[in-house]
Amino acid sequence: xxxxxxxxxxxxxxxxxxxxxxxxxxxxxxxxxxxxxxxxxxxxxxxxxxxxxxxxxxxxxxxxxxxxxxxxxxxxxxxxxxxxxxxxxxxxxxxxxxxxxxxxxxxxxxxxxxxxxxxxxxxxxxxxxxxxxxxxxxxxxxxxxxxxxxxxxxxxxxxxxxxxxxxxxxxxxxxxxxxxxxxxxxxxxxxxxxxxxxxxxxxxxxxxxxxxxxxxxxxxxxxxxxxxxxxxxxxxxxxxxxxxxxxxxxxxxxxxxxxxxxxxxxxxxxxxxxxxxxxxxxxxxxxxxxxxxxxxxxxxxxxxxxxxxxxxxxxxxxxxxxxxxxxxxxxxxxxxxxxxxxxxxxxxxxxxxxxxxxxxxxxxxxxxxxxxxxxxxxxxxxxxxxxxxxxxxxxxxxxxxxxxxxxxxxxxxxxxxxxxxxxxxxxxxxxxxxxxxxxxxxxxxxxxxxxxxxxxxxxxxxxxxxxxxxxxxxxxxxxxxxxxxxxxxxxxxxxxxxxxxxxxxxxxxxxxxxxxxxxxxxxxxxxxxxxxxxxxxxxxxxxxxxxxxxxxxxxxxxxxxxxxxxxxxxxxxxxxxxxxxxxxxxxxxxxxxxxxxxxxxxxxxxxxxxxxxxxxxxxxxxxxxxxxxxxxxxxxxxxxxxxxxxxxxxxxxxxxxxxxxxxxxxxxxxxxxxxxxxxxxxxxxxxxxxxxxxxxxxxxxxxxxxxxxxxxxxxxxxxxxxxxxxxxxxxx
Length: 732
Ligand code: ADP
Ligand code: ZN
Prior knowledge:
Elements: E1 7-8, E2 13-18, E3 26-29, E4 35-36, E5 40-45, E6 48-57, E7 72-73, H1 81-94, H2 98-105, E8 117-123, H3 133-144, H4 152-159, H5 163-172, E9 175-181, H6 200-215, E10 219-224, H7 231-244, E11 248-252, H8 259-270, E12 275-277, H9 283-295, E13 300-303, E14 315-321, H10 338-349, E15 352-357, H11 362-369, E16 374-377, E17 389-394, H12 408-419, E18 423-427, E19 436-439, E20 456-458, E21 463-465, E22 472-473, E23 488-491, H13 495-505, E24 511-514, H14 522-533, E25 539-542, E26 555-560, H15 574-586, E27 597-602, H16 608-615, H17 618-632, E28 638-647, H18 650-662, H19 665-668, E29 673-685, E30 688-698, H20 703-711, E31 721-726
Parallel strand pairs: 10-15, 10-16, 11-13, 11-14, 12-13, 14-15, 17-27, 18-25, 18-26, 24-25, 26-27
Antiparallel strand pairs: 1-4, 2-3, 2-6, 5-6, 5-7, 8-9, 19-23, 20-21, 21-22, 28-30, 28-31, 29-30
């Protein structure tokens, strides 16, 4: 229990926050034996029992005689004050009701299961005097399994007897009944094990991070360095320091596929595996980790963004690896940025944050510029001699038919690498075979029935797939619009189509495609990655998942098929995202002793972003991009909130949108402006019509309070839904 938590004697009024969609706390009487503030409890609600947390003192208004009592206190570590504050503040920031925050923080099954201990049964030393057939079977089963412990259910089933037979044997002393913890602690990590001898800049960076940890205060550091500069090696030093101090550490990774390699490195260094938290972890393991995190028995956790809501007992360090990665923004349910919330959590916990990346987000870059974050740069790339050389291929002068995407220049370079037994990577950020299917008779483009989106042909799956809602259907024989037969044709390339072209040009090459939809499981994907890393492919074709941290030692050439792809559209981060992605992908080329080459196919080689990428002047790019955003008053120099209204009819969505736009007094009071309503870029998803508004405010403005007052004037009617996205990352 936290030092400042309050204790409520039996019968005292307590306010309980439940995960039920209620807009208030419920008041109960404290149970027999009393309870601590923060205790996880089960309370009666109507005919049901629901889980909740004792949040504080209850209201005094009610008739005491009518108050129901807390049913029981759960056998898990109480919620700490820091956690309650964290949930409250994330809820305030993202305009999320507290009950929904509590749900996010208790996403592990079986937390209400009463005992954290369970009874197990082992063979005793005494033989029963009166041996029945059933008793003999129980003893036989136990003997055949050696000294193993059984639960009552397991034992009764294995022996084919009722549980009373086992209980009878316990009374006679023939079977021993013991208490055993349900969820075991995670193995200790040996923090004193030395890491690799560090290069000078690595050592300086590690020392700075460790000094910060020892200070025991909050602080955030941008750790910048190209792929392979040793960022992981450096933050491992900070993890070791944190563990040595007896505090817990959390490492967030943007993708499950990266955890396997990281786990191996932790095991090699600290002698045991850390705890894992992501969608691929079993329910039992989730519950174990949730409990152990609260008891301080999970020293190091590696996970996806939601690991941030684990009830750590004493979190001292949060590493956000690849901090610029867009997957850190949760795009449904509670809309939050795990990177930003990591900083918030650390500031409440007197913990340290390390934001590691080769290409920082502009937000992080600007925070470092402003001195809010420290910044450490790993200058020298560890091992490899040089960064890849970058060149543009001017597609305006290449001789290439319209349905081909690998230019003669790029082909020549791939050919050259194959002769040297080196790998080439072709990067195209488009899954599937072709993004558009068009009817050559009438011009109709096949769209999704439920969304305002075109269906993407996936030949591998032999289907058309909507990338918005996931709906898929077989490729029709005739045009759905004019019914012409055999006239449907693919337009534009996806990775599958690119692979087809490459196989045609290089029939002798081993071609591997890396795209998230081609693998049934994380294991299959991992196998493919290992195959490539081991030299099992000559040409790799991949979507943006290849940009993320996999090491391919034989890779010396990267070809970006369409460098202009990300530059289109109205997204305010289009330039930043393109810059990051292409820099990251290019960084895959060349390691150790073989210098790499990155070739960018582009129709606009003079575009400022393309020029910045080619020149390698990263700081110049950030400064120019920052100046532009500053002039426009957009993030990180201004604030944005996206409002999406969805409804089953366009009218209903616009009715609420227009009403909001008219009633903007609460926004104007703080100088914020509202734009819209307008149909969202994807105006229909899963059959629901979508309308957007955008709120823009100055940086210092108390935007959330104004938004609350503004939106609070209306209650969405019928099936109309409204969601608020603070600091939106995507604008679909
Ligand atoms: P990053 O996280 O910046 O991509 P890593 O920490 O993964 O870089 O380092 C890249 C590779 O170089 C890894 O295989 C790592 O073990 C190795 N490495 C980094 N620093 C050192 C060092 N000081 N001594 C030996 N190997 C190192
Ligand atoms: Zn759809």
